[in-house]
Amino acid sequence: MADHQRIHPVPEPEQEPPVQKPTVPLVPKGSFRSEKGDPEKQQQQEQPPFRRRTIPYYPPLKPPKKRCCTCKRCLCCTCCLLFLLIIIIGGLGAAFYFVFQPKIPNYSVDSMRITQFSFNTDMSLLFATFNVNITARNPNKKIGIYYESGSHLSVWYTGVKLCEGSLPRFYQGHQNTTVLSLDLSGQTQNATELLQALQVDQQKGSIPLNLRAKVPVKLKIGKLMLMKWKFLVKCRLDVDSLAANNAIRIRNSDCKFGFRL
User: Fold this and answer.
1) pLDDT tens per residue, range 97-123
2) DSSP 3-state assignment of 77?
3) Could you tell me which residue ranges the Late embryogenesis abundant protein LEA-2 subgroup domain spans (predicted)?
4) I want to staple 232 with a disulfide (CB 3.0 to 4.6 A). Which of 75, 122, 165, 258 is the partner?
């Protein structure tokens, strides 16, 4: 007879019990927490908070204005034109100088004679009449001088005008020398102080006089007539006496020349 098979129950594998989370702190009884507190919480506190990075906002750049470029172009063109004009004027001036070689006219006081120099009864008025010989020289080879009407000459002593007159109208050619005999007359008020100063200078034998001249002229260069100019002449004289009807010796004479439009 066949052996009866025995069926033995197979024991099921033992399941490990689920791990339970501790409900009590892991610090043993009777011990104390760290002075720094809970490590987990401390680690969380030490981590810096997350900060969102902000990107700065820049407004969009405006395109340059066209007006600024236009102003720069105008300024550049103006500067170029001025520079070109200066070059042209300088070139014309240099050409004029080398072609015509202009020179300054020369003037000198050669002699002086007093026909009247007297006071009234109360010495309050002075009457003076001078005859002055002036030599004018034009050293230019290609420039002529037209002396126009409206000139004015005067003789001064210590800031007081003694007499005055004018030049005749004439033309002075190239490299010409002209001698002018001029009569100047005038009267001076409140001449008492003037007489006292004059007596002191006559005793010294040196009387300072100033002759001033303003003469309108026109220059002729070749066939071209230029605009009207005004010659300014100042002469410092040193004479020995101002007695009437007496020979007056000019001890020193120094004339300076200038001009203006």
Assistant:
1) 788 888 999 999 999 999 888 888 887
2) helix
3) 134-236
4) 258
